């Protein structure tokens, strides 16, 4: 059966529709479409497992945890074996064909989810669950999109423009709700600011969200060099260098 594939067509509802047209309506065009329905259901299930985004998800979209881990691993391994066995009209495995990238990518993803979940759920300080959607690049693309939006959707910001856009994003995410109302609470507290050698330079009162931002500069995380590129050492004057 010839089907033009797209993400929207690989869903259980489409597989149900094909079965209905074949079994109930007995339409000639859908005779022998059992393999197509099975393929669609298998890929749809894999999609669901790979995009679990809520701890309250159900069925295939539920998070991986110690209770369902081995069951989910068995499902993923069965899907991997199914993908390895797919062949084209010339009886050549799809994983060896010219359009093998998608199928190899699925196999790598399955293997990564299995190994990473087992490690995170069985370490000394184990995770309660694993949400596979958090492993996708969507979160990174969303961050880049927000930075671009701050600069008027500029694809080539200067160093200073990128710096201010990133600072605005960090400050916005640092705002917390008030303890006594549903409005934004700007809490001030006295903090000590030190220089690069650790010497005390001043003690002042600053808004809460600014404290959060300053903490990234004063006490950077292990990802500081990679994410902020030594933000605290960037010159204040505007340059023409592009990020």
From TrEMBL:
<dbReference type="InterPro" id="IPR048366">
    <property type="entry name" value="TNP-like_GBD"/>
</dbReference>
<dbReference type="InterPro" id="IPR048367">
    <property type="entry name" value="TNP-like_RNaseH_C"/>
</dbReference>
<feature type="domain" description="Transposable element P transposase-like GTP-binding insertion">
    <location>
        <begin position="1"/>
        <end position="62"/>
    </location>
</feature>
<protein>
    <submittedName>
        <fullName>THAP domain-containing protein 9</fullName>
    </submittedName>
</protein>
<dbReference type="Pfam" id="PF21789">
    <property type="entry name" value="TNP-like_RNaseH_C"/>
</dbReference>
<dbReference type="Pfam" id="PF21788">
    <property type="entry name" value="TNP-like_GBD"/>
</dbReference>
<feature type="domain" description="Transposable element P transposase-like RNase H C-terminal">
    <location>
        <begin position="133"/>
        <end position="165"/>
    </location>
</feature>
């Amino acid at each position: 059966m010839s089907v033009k594939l797209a993400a929207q067509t690989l869903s259980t509802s489409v597989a149900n529709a094909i079965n209905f047209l074949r079994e109930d309506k007995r339409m000639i065009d859908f005779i022998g479409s059992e393999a197509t329905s099975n393929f669609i259901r298998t890929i749809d299930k894999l999609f669901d497992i790979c995009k679990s985004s809520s701890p309250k998800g159900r069925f295939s979209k539920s998070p991986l945890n110690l209770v369902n881990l081995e069951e989910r691993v068995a499902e993923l391994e069965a899907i991997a074996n199914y993908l390895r066995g797919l062949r084209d009209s010339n009886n050549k495995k799809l994983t060896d064909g010219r359009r093998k990238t998608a199928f190899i990518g699925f196999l790598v993803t399955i293997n990564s989810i299995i190994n990473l979940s087992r490690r995170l759920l069985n370490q000394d300080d184990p995770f309660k669950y694993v949400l596979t959607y958090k492993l996708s690049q969507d979160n990174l693309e969303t961050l880049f999109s927000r930075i671009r939006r701050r600069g008027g959707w500029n694809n080539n910001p200067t160093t200073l423009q990128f710096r201010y856009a990133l600072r605005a994003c960090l400050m916005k995410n640092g705002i917390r709700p008030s303890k006594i109302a549903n409005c934004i609470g700007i809490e001030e507290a006295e903090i000590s600011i030190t220089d690069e050698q650790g010497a005390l330079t001043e003690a002042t009162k600053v808004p809460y969200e600014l404290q959060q931002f300053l903490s990234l500069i004063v006490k950077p995380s292990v990802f500081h060099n990679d994410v902020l590129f030594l933000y605290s050492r960037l010159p204040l004057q505007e340059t023409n260098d592009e990020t």
